[in-house]
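your task:
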Amino acid sequence: MKAHERMLRYIHFPTVSDAAANTCPSTPAQLDLGRALVQEMLDMGIADANMDENGYVFGTLPANNGKETPVLGFIAHMDVSDDAPSQHIKTRVVPQYDGGPIVLNEKENIVMDPTRFPVLSDYTGHDLIVTDGTTLMGCDDKAGIAEILTMAEYFLTHPDIPHGTIKIGFTPDEEIGRGADLFDVKQFGADFAYTVDGGAFGEVTCETFNAASATVIFTGKSMHPGAAKDKLVNASLLAMEFHAMLPPAQRPEHTQGYEGFYHLTDMVGRVEQSTLSYIVRDHDLDKLEAKKAFLQSICDFMNAKYGEGTVRLDMVDSYYNMSVKLKDHWHLIDTARAAVEKMGGTPCSVPVRGGTDGSRLSFMGLPCPNLGTGSHNHHSRTEFASIQAMEQCTELLIAIAQAYGG
C-alpha cells in the first residue's frame, strides 16, 4: 500500500486532542486510531505491536543484518490540531497540478492561490491531495504515520534488504504539548530516532523554538453600570489593556525565520474575571526568557495601577530548542542529508517555527531530529500533500534505516 493511501484512511479518525482534558490520551478517538494501527502492524508482521495504557503505540522490526548496529527509531503523532475543523474531512486529488490557483470549494469561494502560498509552485506537475476547504486534512501527522508504516511494510516484504533493529513509536497529544510526557525512552530501546513530522521532502530539522505557555487571569469588580462611577473594574477591559501593551510586530503573522513571537490562542471575558492564553516562542533561550520577563513586567505594572492581585500570570516552559542536544549527535543530520542528496534532492535545515515530540525527547535522552512528510499548510483548511513527495519521504526513511543497519 502507498503512503498516501494509508494516510487517507487515517484522517477519518477524528483525533483532535483536548488541552482541557486531564487524561492521556486526552480524547478517546486517539485510542481508536491506536488500536487500528496496532492491528495493521500485527497484520503486516510486526509481532510485538502494542498500545500501552496511556495510548502510546509501539512496535519493532528485528534486525536481519547479522551484526551489531545502532537501534534506530521512527516516531510520529496520532492527534491533530484543533485550530481548524477536523471532522467529516473530504479530500480529492488534483492530478498533475498546473501551478495555478486551486478552487477548493466553489460554492464557498475558497481558493488556494500560489500568490498567497508560494510553496505550491514547488509542486507543479505533482498529484496533490487537498480538502474541500472546510476542514484541515490531518497530514500533521498522519502523513508521518503512513510513511513509517509504509517503510516497515517495505522491509517486511523484502527480507533480503539488510537493516538493523528499527523501533516504531506513535504518540498521543503532541499538538497540546504532551506527546513526550509519558513516553518511556528506556523501554522504547532506541539509541536515537527521527520524528517524521515536518513539511517538504528534504527537510532535516535540527533546531526548533524554545517554548512556554502563559495564562493571564484578570480579576475585576462588578457593579451595576448605573452606579459604576469609580467602582466598576471590568476584567475584560483589563485583558484588552494588557494585550495592547504587547508589541504587534512580535505576533506570528508578522514574524519569520529566527524571530520569536507572542501568540494569543484563547480568551474568555466577563466583568469579574477574564483570561488570556498565550504561547511564547523564540529560538534563542535568552530571548525567550526576556519575553517571559516582559509579560511579568506588564503584570507588575497593572497590579501597581489597579491593586495587587488584579492580574496573575502563570507560565510553564513547554520544550526547548533541540539543537542544544543534537550538536553532540550530528551524524543524524549528516546521514539524513546524505540520503536526501543520494536520492537527487536538496537537503534543507531551516529553523522550525514550532516543535515536535523530538524537541522533548532529545532532552529525555533520545536524540531526535525531524524529517519532512511531503505536506504543507498544517493546522489549516488549505492543508495539502503531494503524493510523489510522500513517496520520496518514505524512500528516505528506508535509505536512512539502511545507512545505519545495512
About this structure: The CA atoms of residues 374 and 389 lie 5 Å apart.
